[in-house]
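Here is one chain, start to finish.
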Amino acid sequence: MSRSGYTLPVFACAAAVAALHWLRHNQPLTVTSIDLIQPAEIVDIPIQQVAGISENQALAITRSDPGDNLDLTKNTPIWAMVEWYEGNGETVIIQGGEGIGKQLNGEGKAAIYGYAQKLLTENLQRLLAPTEKIKVTIILPEGRSLAVRTSNSAFGVVEGLSLLGTTGISQPLSTPEQLTAFLADLADKARQFTTLVFCIGENGLDLAQKLGINPAQIVKTANWLGPMLVAADILGIKEILLFGYHGKLLKLAGGIFHTHHHLADGRREILTAHCSMLGLRSPDLQAIFHSSTAEAALKHLRSLDHATGSHWVNQVYNSIAETIDTRCQEYMNSHNEQGKTIVACGSVLFDRDRQILIKSKIGCMLLEKLC
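Its structure:
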C-alpha cells in the first residue's frame, strides 16, 4: 500500500508556525501541529531548524514529504520567515520569497493560491493576540531549479514553484492504489448526484471551485480518465463535465484515455489534424506541428487571428472539444456490456492563464447547470 504524505502548503505552514513560536517564546520547536482544514484533521509536522534573525524576525525550516508520490519536491527544504509588523492591513500578510513562482497574468503576484493562503492564515491567526500582526515570507531555496522540470510555465508561473492544491494530503497520482481511491470517491459521489465534474489536476479543481461548481460534485481523475469514465457509466451517472487544461484534455480527441505523457502523447498530431481539416495553410500547419508545446501552438493560432481577423482558435478548439465529447461517448459505449451508454459527456478546456478557452455544446449546457 502506498504511503500518503502532505502537500507543500502544509510544510510552509508548519515552518511559519515554528518561526512564530520562536518570536514569542525564544525557543525552537521540533514538531508543530497543523490543522489541515481540508480534510478536517490535525497532523504533526517535524521541524528541521529554527533560528532568530533579530528581535522581530525568525526563520524556520522543514522538508517536504509527499509520501510515496513521485513528486519532484520530495525532501526539498521549505523556509518560512516571520516578522512582527505594525500598521494597517491584514493580520497575516503572506509573501513569496526566492523560489516561489510569480504569476505572469497577475503582474508578478506570488503563486500562493487559495488553499495555501487559507491554511497559513487560519493556523497563524489562532496564535496571535487581537492587536498582533505578522508578515510571512515563504522561501523555496531549490524552487527555481525545480520549476524548470514542471509544467508551471504552461500556466504562466515563472521563476519558481507554486503553492497550489485544494487539500493537505498528497496522494500518489499514478499508482493502482490511487485509482482505487478515485473510484471509491466516484462511487460515493454517484450516490448523491447524477451530474459530476471530472478534473485531471489541481488547476482544474481550483478553477472549477472558483467558478462556483459544488466541490461535492467534483471528482479528481489524475490521468485515469478511461477507467473513470467507464466506472461512471456503470454507476449510473447521467452527465459528466470534463474540465481541464487544453494541453491534457485534447489527447482524448485522439482516443488517448490515459493521459500521462510517459504513456502517450500525440498532442501536436491531434492539433495539426484538426487545423488541416479546417483548411489552415501549409506554412501554418508546419508551425503547429513543430510547436514545442500545446500552449505554443495555441499562441501561434492566436497570433494568426490577431494579424488577419480570422477565428482559427475558436474553430480549431471547437472542433477538438466536440471530438472529445464524441470519443468519450464511443469509449464508454465500447466498454458497456449493453453496448450503449446513456451518459451525456461535455468538455470545458482552459488555457495557461486559467481562462476558459472553449466549451463544447454539451459542456456549455452542463456548466450553466452546475454554476
